[in-house]
Automatic annotation (TrEMBL):
Its EC number is 2.5.1.19. It comes from Aeoliella straminimaris. The keyword Transferase applies. This is 3-phosphoshikimate 1-carboxyvinyltransferase. NCBIfam families: aroA. Pathway: Metabolic intermediate biosynthesis; chorismate biosynthesis; chorismate from D-erythrose 4-phosphate and phosphoenolpyruvate: step 6/7. Residues 11-421 form the Enolpyruvate transferase domain.
Length: 428
């Protein structure tokens, strides 16, 4: 692919039916649970992307071989029953938050020295709260970059167990990592959340995927406390992965922006993925939403600005921001200070790029206030952030001349995004 792509505006209302690739979050959880299981699991509908590649390569290096078939969408692996076969490993995890957080916890079950590192941006994404929690559970773990950032080194002698307090205001992935590995600890583990817990639907997803692999742990209803007895292995199984709801959001938003409708198959309101709630926000903005048992269709309507606390669905901020440019009245998004620690500082990056497109944007500490104005073409920086590229490309479906730089950054979760978007928009 070239270093930039100029989006062709859509000349007619959308009439798209799309099945996005498999969920990143479910693929990487299912891989971890299968890796810790006794027996052979087969995962179908898996995502093939940078974030799942680094998870698969790392599991291979840890001595848990993952076989790939059906162009990588079927993954077969024999779990190690809660052990880590390799006694030493250097893991390169790119810029995958799920992979580094889940595997830092997983390697603490091993007996050996494991080092986890990634791209320069990953060395700026904090993981100290997770490392602190592991230390409280008796693990020798350290961060090598200032501010509690990777590389992480774990010198494992098995995860002893005990009580740990973990902060949840930067990322829920620390807790998800602990939850998936703690059943295999030598002794009982109790985790207490200190303060606010962001991105809560992802923690519920973790508990559901664990349950699907045969492990139910005690979780307080307010997600403030978790307990597992230790010494438990997951059960291997066949497991079907849902399409990615965050990826689906771009097609629903395209219908909101261009008009017409986008149906996403394979998702429903009972999805494990909290991001399906983006359709509720689109509905508040004036779209019509048809929720079926195996699909959700969004039809565009006259758009109005909204006020939304998006703490639980923070990956959807860029999607809603793109739609907000076409609405009547301002849109205020709050509750997403944690978006400053993702692939880039997503609050500051969005403010910069939305202003280039003509919007009036006030940057808040924990969000943005977007006041739409006359839109204009712009060359959009993507900050090596797939969601900057995928969301702001949607603006180009209405505004001629929107050029997206470094479009291949979508490979993090959606390598064929631009082909699928052009097809859906009828501009292929
Ligand atoms: O657990 C997960 O699968 C994820 C949790 C969220 O991160 P935070 O918990 O850091 O907000 C989300 O942004 C990320 O894309 C995937
Ligand atoms: C924040 C994201 O990813 P991660 O934290 O898993 O790197 C994302 O996919 O938007």
């Amino acid at each position: 692919m070239t270093d930039s792509i100029t989006i062709t505006p859509s000349s007619a209302p959308l009439q798209a039916t799309v099945t996005p690739p498999g969920s990143k979050s479910i693929t990487n959880r299912a891989l971890v649970c299968a890796a810790l299981a006794r027996g052979t699991s087969e995962l179908t509908g898996a995502l093939v992307s940078d974030d799942t590649r680094v998870m698969i390569d790392s599991l291979n290096r840890l001595g848990i071989a993952v076989q790939e078939s059906n162009q990588g969408t079927t993954l077969t692996l024999e779990g190690a029953g809660g052990n880590v076969p390799a006694e030493a490993a250097e893991l390169f995890i790119g810029n995958s938050g799920t992979t580094i957080r889940f595997l830092t916890a997983l390697v603490s079950l091993g007996r050996g020295t494991y080092r986890l590192d990634g791209v320069p941006r990953m060395r700026e994404r904090p993981i100290g709260d997770l490392v602190d929690a592991l230390v409280q559970l008796g693990v020798d773990a350290t961060c090598e970059s200032p501010g509690g950032c990777p590389p992480v080194v774990v010198r494992g002698t098995g995860l002893p167990g005990g009580k740990a307090t973990v902060r949840g205001n930067i990322s829920s992935q620390y807790l998800s990592g602990l939850l998936m590995s703690m059943p295999a600890a030598a002794g009982a583990v109790e985790i207490i959340i200190d303060g606010q817990l962001v991105s809560q639907p992802y923690v519920k997803m973790t508990l559901e995927v664990m349950k699907a692999f045969g492990v139910s742990i005690h979780a307080a209803e307010d997600l403030g406390l978790f307990r597992a007895p230790g010494g438990t292995a997951y059960e291997a199984r066949q497991y079907a992965i849902e399409p990615d709801a965050s990826a689906a959001s771009y097609f629903w938003a395209a219908a909101a922006i261009v008009g017409g409708s986008a149906t996403v198959s394979g998702l429903s309101t009972s999805s494990l993925q909290g991001d399906v709630a983006v359709v509720d926000l689109l509905e508040q903005m004036g779209c019509k939403v048809d929720r079926q048992a195996d699909s959700i269709c969004v039809t565009g309507g006259k758009l109005r600005g909204i006020t939304a606390d998006m703490n639980a669905v923070s990956d959807m901020v860029q999607t809603i921001a793109a739609v907000a440019l076409f609405a009547e009245g301002p849109t205020e998004i709050t509750g997403v200070a944690h978006n400053r620690h993702k692939e880039t500082d997503r609050i500051s990056a969005l403010a910069t790029e939305l202003r280039k497109l003509g919007a009036n944007v006030e940057e808040l500490e924990d969000g943005l206030r977007i006041t739409p104005q006359q839109l204009r073409s712009a060359v959009i920086e993507t900050y090596d952030d797939h969601r900057m590229a995928m969301s702001l490309a949607l603006v180009g479906l209405r505004v001629p001349g929107v050029e997206i730089l470094d479009p291949h950054c979508t490979a993090k979760t959606y390598p064929n995004y631009f082909q699928d978007l052009c097809r859906a928009a009828g501009t292929a």
